[in-house]
Amino acid sequence: MARVVVDVMPKPEILDPQGKAVLGALPRLGFSGVTDVRQGKRFELEIDGEITDEVLAEIDKVAESLLSNPVIENYEVHVEDRSVAEIAAEAGR
Prior knowledge:
The chain has a single domain (2-90), classed as Phosphoribosylformylglycinamidine synthase subunit PurS (Mth169, Chain: A). The chain contains 3 helices and 3 strands; from the N terminus they run βαβαβα. The protein has helices at residues 17-28, 53-67, 84-90; strands at 2-10, 41-47, 73-80. It starts with a strand and ends with a helix.
């Protein structure tokens, strides 16, 4: 089983009030040096079988038509590497 991740972010020219709220709160919480915050969405899709170019093309269609609003958001689709813990769990360690 593989995991495909779709990250969705507001386009740079779109205002991001949630990101601005986080940016304003950081100094009050003692964090400094952060100059900008953009807030987005992350979708993790568990896929049975092999991740082929055809599967990724289908997921791209899903990302464009359902998971994002292409007018105001950009998205990126990528296959997530499995963690060491996941590999060890599969091996029964």
